[in-house]
Protein 1
Amino acid sequence: MKKSRDGEHNPGRRKFLKGVGIAGAGAAIADHLWEEKTEAKEEQSTPQTVSGATKISLQVNGQARSVQVEPRTTLLNALRNHLEPAVTGPKLVCDVGTCGACTVLLDGKPVYSCLVLAVDATNKKITTVEGLGSPEKPNGVQAAFVEHDALMCGFCTPGFVTTISAYLKKNPNPSLDEVREACKGNFCRCGTYPRVFEAALAAAKAAI
Amino acid sequence: MPQQQQPTPSPSPKPKKKIRVPRVVNGVEQMVEIEVDEDSGPGWGPNDKHTLLNRRITRVDGSLKAAGAAHYTYDQRLPGMLYGRILRCPHGHARVTKLDTEAAAKIPGVKAIVPAPLTELRFAGAPVAAVAAVTPEIAGDALRAIKVTYEVLPHVVHADAAMKPDAPKVVADENNVQEKAKNGDPAKVEAAFATADAIVEAEYITQRVHHACLETHGMVVDYRGGNSATIYASTQGTFTIPADAAKELGLEQSAVVSLVEHMGGGFGSKFGIGIEGMFACRLSKETKAPVKLMLTRYDEFVMAGNRSGSLQKMKAGVKNDGTIVALQAKQYRLGGIGQGSQAGQPYIYRMGDTYREIYALHTNEDSAIAMRAPGHPQASFAVESLVDELAYKIKMDPVAFRKKNLRDEVYHRQLDRGAKEIGWSRRNPIAGGNPGPLKRGMGCAVGTWGGGGNNQCKVDLTISRDGSVLVACGTQDLGTGTRTYTRAIVAEEFGLGMNDVKEQIGSSKLGSANPSGGSTTAASLAPSVKDAAIKARVMFVERVAPLLGNAKPEEVVFADGKVSAKGQSLTWKQACAALPAAGVKSHGEWRADLQSRGVHGVCFAEVEVDVETGHIKPIKMVHVQDGGLPLNRLTLESQINGGMIQSLGQALYEGRVMDAQLGLQLNPGFGDYKLPGCLEMPELVPIIDDDDKREAVIGIAEGCIIPALGAIANAVFNATGLRIRELPITPDKILMGTKV
């Protein structure tokens, strides 16, 4: 990929990114998943100016992964389109932070990875659905999803699994209403909600 | 005299019979006549005698999906792959007079730009051109840099405006309103109205809703300039891809393979390569590089189809004893630039003398396309609302009233079952009669569908000497659990566990299969799988009988991983070791007697309406569904839940909103187009009607999405006394109704 030249019509790739504004906004929107307010750690990172394609290092599922991205590349697209091999558990569904299918954990907290810039995730531990368990060794939530048939086409599933896995760490023994509240930022179209709730409650029960 | 030579007798042909079966073309069922064998083989046996089927089997691909390891089309990434994006028309109706791609082509990383085949664009969102670039971000830059000059033409996007004689024409020189059918004798109906004790005349409107598949439409075309190509497609029809893709790529159809490993939802919207697939092929052909073109969410809303809207003017007459004597219906299908769809009234009711007219009404909007039970929820909503109005008018219980006018006894038992489950006896028969601002109410409705199969599925089954079992067919799993029941049918036949059998699907290199539309998949595939299993069993028994005291075929029992006869028993592996080197291979063909068609469903809903805010809270929904032999109760219940939830969305939340002036959709994203979510979920009770004893597979996906619209609207009426005849039933409509 060639670097962009100055002067051409190319708004997306001009030097535009200063500091952390957009990533902060992304985290804030995903934060509505939580009832209590948490301190936004993003504000502590050092503002710097980046332009063109840049090599960065991301800590994905416990591994340091080097990747070349543009400043505007979202964490979601970095994982899916640039990391080699790709990490495709988080799904691109709306790309504007409305559906939750791209949910990943940043330092254990769920965020919509389509609203986080890759360059703003360099100092965070990124956990995707793949980092929570594998088909052979699923975590409790993943196992409960299979057991309770909490998935159909499966495209929303990684987002729900990630959101619920993080929530159960925070609240190990939730009520049905708390589970609903915890995953209200995730959409499903096939209609798995009731069984998603069942699976979350069963996973919580099994872990206690 | 020399004896006349007799012609060599050909093997006596199996007796054949002709039957009519559904074929799906672009998601819509058409009935065709085919010939099948008169005599058939062993059946499924009684529904309550299965060891795997009709039980709760967890999905075989569940752990892959839950761990993010299932690979979808959207997840494909190939070396050197380019990303495609589509430029869309910003006007309700326009002609492209100039397409200047010079600046866009100069952007580093942009590899190809191709124009759309049509220059007259009849809706906002119609494709103008497509680009391929090394990243999706750069493809977006290129779209912004393309300069298009449009000759803007007059448009009309609202049905009432489109009906006016001076409305802008959607298609030049053609009326926006087109007559499609007239059935019945209007004079007879008029006479019947004269015998009625009460008459209801009303107009019902259903909005256009979106499929909103979470995986958008699109494909990855892996073509690098050679003589062959591989297409990864998010499709409901593996075999609907190669022919058109080959045409676009200039290749022989046999050199194009389509793969559908997993797909993220279709609901009727994904057949064939589509305009996005056409662009992907053209871009790949031009660049000789793999191209991935998945629609953006915005694209998905504005150009990937929607459920046909409807406008239905109905008039019905009823006698005081509850007999409906006449119906007159004027039905408009609101399909945008397309034809739309709508089942004819009086849908499934017996209404004495009936007369109906059906019209297609065109607007400058993206074409409606097939969506889960095309045309049925619309017709059902109107007739179920009308039936409810008639029942209240003559002060008859809506359940009893329905029974009175439904011939089929299956509905009667299902209505009783649903009424019991929802607690119908708690319902206040006086609409809006409960005190206080939070008013609860209940409603019900019924629905039907075909769900039969056809003879398009060809299944190959291999049992190897090492004991491994592979069943293969090119079909696709939309999230319905196709993989799981395919495996279960074979495992059950041989007394094996679910993990002892593997299945292979989603490839056009495998045996052919029908596209998954019209709930035809299960009833097409399962019989072919069963046939393959039965044939393999016969061959298998032939080989192992000598090891079991020369047992007769009917004496050999397959159970619990063992093959037994005459008091002797072999483990599955021991038995398989007796097979020839190539193992046992069988080919399964469809058998009409292993499936059937015709399903019944009833839905009951309870809602709570806050008449001070207009907020409607769904409390509980019950859906009772028959469907012959349930292949897998767990996934079947999930599908019934899905039908209720999607209906709930259409009843209360969803709807395409168009701006009349600009001709644009105002809510093309999940931020503005409201899908039912976690907080809206009522208690959902999916009930499989086990009183259906048919030992036959029948599809139910469509059946269970039909009646809920009417059930919810009728519950809102029972709660409030407000008859909302236009969907979605939003708080504003409640408030407008309560303010006198």
Note: Chain B touches chain A through 72 residues (CB under 8 Å).
Protein 2
Amino acid sequence: MSTLDATGAPAHRPFAGRRGARVGDVVLPGMSGLAALVAVVLIGLIAYKVAAGSRLALSTFGLGFLSHVGWDPVHGRFGGASFLFGTAVTSVGALILATPLALAIALFLTELAPRWLRAPVTALVETLAAIPSVVIGLWGIIVLGPVLRDHVMPGLHSALGFIPLFGPAGPGPGVFTAIVVLTIMILPIVSSIARELFLGVPPELKEAALGLGTTRWEMVRGVVLPYTRGGIAAAVILGLGRAVGEAIAVAQVIGGVDNLVSWNLFAGGNTLAAKIALEFQSSTSDLETSSLFYLALILLVFSLVVNVVARSVVRRVARRQGLVLR
Amino acid sequence: MSLSSTIERTVRVETKREPLPPRERLQQVFDIQDLTAAYGSKPTLKNVSMEVYENLVTAVIGPSGCGKSTFIRCLNRMNDLVPGFRQAGTIRYHGQDIAAKDVDAVAVRRTIGMVFQRPNPFPKSIRDNVAWGLKVLGMRDDLEGRIERALTQAALWDEVKDRLKASALSLSGGQQQRLCIARAIAVEPDVVLMDEPASALDPIATQAIEQLLHELKSEYSFVIVTHNMQQAARVADMTAFFSISRGAEGERWGELVEYDATEKIFTAPSDKRTEDYVTGRFG
Amino acid sequence: MSAAAPAVFRRANDRLARRRVVNHALELVAWLAAPVGVGILGLVVWSVAKRGASQLNLDLLTKPPVPFAIGTVRQGLANAFAGSLVIVGLATAMTLPVGILVAVYVNEFARRPVRNGLGLALDVLTGIPAIVIGIFVFGLVVVGRGQSGYAGAFALAVLMLPYVARATIEVLALVPDSLREASLGLGVPRWRTTVGIVLPQTIGGIVTGGVLAVARVAGETAPLLFTSSIVGNQIAWNPAHALQTVPVAIFELSEQGDPADTARAWAAAFVLLVFILVTSLGARWLANRSRRKLGRAAR
């Protein structure tokens, strides 16, 4: 009649058991539980430390920080609006460029590419994700920046200059270069998630559409894309999170212009993350440092929201699989 | 004990259908010559030659693995979707060889539709399942009328007319399959291919589908694959029996053994293999 | 009537020609997208290789930088390579035990709600931008005490933690319960079963996960900017002080206008890129091999 007790050891052991055996059964769950606790506490600690660091700026500027444009160490007046704007413009711009390209690549890999080509191309696109941001930034400054500045930007400006987005090019790289760099960085994320989603579409649904006499594209538009809509939304949101949080590559190419809120993509600008990266060493006062913490707090809140939203979208998609998709 | 009485005892042939007109007066829909198919290096069908006639139900029967599904999927170029698939021979549809590489499969599938073994409605509403094909294929005039007509022909209208916006996946299996039939006939094909359309359904739903075949064959031509001999006997006017042949090194492929009016196949088959199959002696 | 769509298949208003044109156009777009994606990778790698390899010499790896003097060659970045080695090594040592223990808890001991909660926590951790983690460690450790290699390593360790934990969880889940039951059935205590039977099965997966995490983190700049960036030029190994690291060095050099600095940045980037590509591809290959050995399809 041997049963196992709570720790999985036999409850009744007629033979001598070493005490060490029992101790281990307390120590291992204890230690590993502690580690798990650490992981969770870490998040709280991060939130706490960032909030604590921004307390000075929070009390000095309050929420007005979010709407004030300009970063003035001399007069001690700091505001996050230009960085919020810059982050929004660069991230949304990168999403606009990256999403169609990523979806096209994913569709190519799942619908069009010959079998032998799929694995290598997939691996290559995903390798793009492994390149460190500082290397992409270096490439952005030296190689991409001049090409954009000398050829693409003037070209776009002369052709489409009436749109305020395409104003006169600034001296250095700028917001546009940052957008291109960010596009490169989020492309593999969105594309690999989209690829997995497309692979998950039941083949009988695709056959049903093709059997009616529709073209491949009509089938993709009518069956594949609606079916994967939710997952793609989550992928896009995750890409957004990545773009918003990218500090280094953006810092290298964006030009670090703080006091400007302009729609001109070809001018310089700055983002929340890049500002922190660029400024931290040269912070002159406690208030300035605290303001940088304030920027980090905004970033942290945003990334937490993005994560939770992406997860809930994924959960809702999983539940809704099988109900009406419009 | 005569052969026909033996067969009659094992297979009850429904004779309430009208007798077939003589072959010469039947319109050909498909003229298949020497159709041979293989997946990669594995042969699946060899030298299938037969004609399919208009406004009839033609059944394809045979043991599993005899290539019935492969055969029917050749008729609307669905096998194009399988990598490594090769075929030879001609399939003439009203004179046009649809097996030719330069014939657009998309156009073919418009006029030769298909209903699949397991119901596969789109995850859209009931109405949109029928509407989607119509819209894409440019049949937007009188859209609602077309939808209603298709659902009526599929004997589904009365059951769903009050909940067209509901999800198609909320229907029962039999209803979903009828929806798939409605979806297929809404785009006005000439031929409807059916790959074991009732095998995933219960007997009542099966009966409903078979009833549909009777009613609709005046407008469409049906080719139906079935592993259920009684079903073939009930619904089909012509029946083709495929069987498995074996090669020297153990390869197996399917061949057309006998193709004739259903009554003849089930009461007086010419080939011994047919007789063995329909009397249940094998397969 | 084109041969492609014989009249017998045509209907009025079917706009077949137009639909086919649209289809072909979009297929073309998709066919072009892939080379664009791959091409970008090729461009970047080729740039780095071309500019970096030519600048690469042994001095870069073995000699420290010398203070700028007009006409003087800058010499090397040995301090950065040394520092990266120390810091990444330390980070791995910090992260592996914690990550493995977290995974053990999640897979062996935790009940469903706790497991979901921990999964959520790991997801959240993955999503926190590296720069925020850098600023966090700054606030936690550097304030008042100054920068150090330990601080930098800790920041990297926080970044690596969710990857190591996730990889270990996956590989633990692959170990069949029958193995655990066999051991418990013999009277072996739970902890011994986990440590002696289950974990050894997962060594390959843990190594792979660790290597991938290292590849992920070797190029991270942001967390090191605040924790280990104010450094001198000499080659140093003591993590109690701030150490120079390769990504930070590249970052700083890339901001300088001097071509000699840029050249060294490319060379360092080349070494870094080669390291990361070799380790991630190598880990991927290792993972495939061990999966085949176990004879199991991935979950």
Note: The first helix of chain A runs from residue 19 to 53.
Protein 3
Amino acid sequence: MSETTATAIWTVIIGMALTNFALRYLPLAVLSRVKLPAPFLRWLSFVPISVMGALVASEVLRPGGSWTPPLGNPGIAASALTMAVFALTRSFLGATLAGMASFVALSAFM
Amino acid sequence: MSSPTDTQDTHTDAAAALALHGTRRQRFMRGARLGIPILLGYAPVGMAFGILARQGGFSTFEATVCSATAIAGAGQFIALSVLGSGAGAASALVATAVVNLRYLLFSTTLAPHVHSARPKTLAWLGFTLTDETFAVNVADLRQGTATLASMSGVGAIAWTGWVGGTFLGAAGSALIGDPARFGVGFAMPAMFSALFVALAEDRRHIVVGVVAGALCLLLPLAPALGLPELAGSWYVVISAIVAASVASAVWRDE
């Protein structure tokens, strides 16, 4: 690992804080003041589930950014179990913990 | 007020009434409790960031300030790895900005629900907007139980978990060792899995979510078809935009 200077570190810290805030805040500030057209609102209503579907697929099936063969991937069963626990209990906490525990247990066997 | 997003106000049940009519503090604390799973997911991943940041030349103070001002999980890890590879601060900033473009989408989605927020509240909601706070708040909005105060509480507990975890990881990096053995690596995927179920209102949503997931797995194959290769962070954004667009074109009656 090459040496990173304090200047580079602080440039990254400050730059990251500013860009992140701009990306997150500007649409909230600008778009919450105007009335959005109905087709756009309908489109937005499908965005959260789409984002979550994409996140689950990439985090579970391509952990660390590369495809993992499904048979050797404990994340698939652990993810299914997490979904089942949440569907039954509606508890984010319980489901997340069950997912982590089952992932550790399944990893030991695979 | 006759926009379709306001109709939820007309059919609040008892639980919703309770969630909506407490004091500001009670509503804030309700949000904080709602966000406890986020805290549990963030604390260990924050620790992992703290440990890696120390290995990458950050001091404990720098690592903690970085998490406290950026609260960007994947973005921060990518900044670290770009810096560590010897590329300069500018490359690290571009990489993290690309990864975090999805926040534009989240922020746009939340915007219609926060039109009554005061500037300070709006700034706080923007500052604490992450994949997880977004998903928890959207699920809560769908139930008609979310308020500006509860959303602020969700953000506060998430921030606390991320920053606290980073500090503990950075300060104790020599003692902790590899956090992976506690299943930490699966905290985020597990939370996303649970949130997927929470956001799946009906069969349409499940179909759209599955389509987005499939697209997200197919996009990395683009170079094999002669299409340009994309940075991994674009997969989620592009597949979500495409899936939501197809869905809103097919199902026009909602």
Note: The CA atoms of residues 28 and 55 of chain A lie 22 Å apart.
Protein 4
Amino acid sequence: MRWGVIVFPGSCDEQDVYDCLKRNLGQRPEFLWHKDRLKGKFDCIVLPGGFSYGDYLRCGAMARFSPIMQGVVEFAEKGGLVLGICNGFQILCEAGLLPGALVRNSSLQFVCRQVCLRVEETDSPFTCSGKKGQLLRMPVKHGEGCYYADPAALERLRKNRQILVRYADGKGRSSAAANPNGSLDHIAGICNEARNVFGLMPHPEDAGEKILGSEDGLKIFSSVIAACDKKEKKAWLG
Amino acid sequence: MRIRIFVCLKEGVLDPQGKAVERSLHSLGYQEVRDVRVGKYIEISLDAPSRPAAEARMREMCDKLLANPVIEDYRFEIQE
């Protein structure tokens, strides 16, 4: 499978994504510079975490206008898989590829800790290898991860089952204590209506081997690999 | 022309910064303070043939980049 990992000025997790894909999963990732046009064939494009453009103005606000993003939007419109992690999620929201926005954590603190995610839906290319209700442990590290959408947009997310993962405690229960940033409805990650674009605040690439404390992050990447293997059979991608 | 742009979180969007500032003002003894919202202030110089032209350009810039319409409201003042 061919993965493109975009590098923006200020990205800092691109190497973690690259290593996780290559060393842990035997994939063929390739870095893509934000100033280049998107060319070549890719199965999945990853927008990694970090602080693109210094988070100036709003997180992700300027990265959205990088030359490569036009190609990413076209790629997504044609059904290509796009995964945004942390700052990547913020960029996808700013670019309008995902609804809503990510605002300052309700605690006003930068959070850096291991969290638990509950898999809510498995009919997506990003969660198809998981089980409904399964708990995935991986870290968060962000200052602006509080998901917000207006009531109508939130209703659409629920109705279309676009909320793929929610924050939960070790027993799978959502609560204010288990929610690291005050995110609306405990949302940790959502996909678009077509289900080919996924953004999440936690970092699956930092939970890819035992020495990091969890291998659960591999579930996200291995779902993408499984989905691409059987892409033509998967109804959720049309 | 000189433009002053004010960007603020929409009503209904939680503003934890505003809340923290409000608490601090209360602890300083300003109990009468309510509804603190923290926003952004941006200044821009612009060449435009007319005031309506400048307004149209500014609205475009605000909608595209300077504010995020999902979470923020904006207004601007033009000084000639």
Note: Chain B has one domain: 2-79.
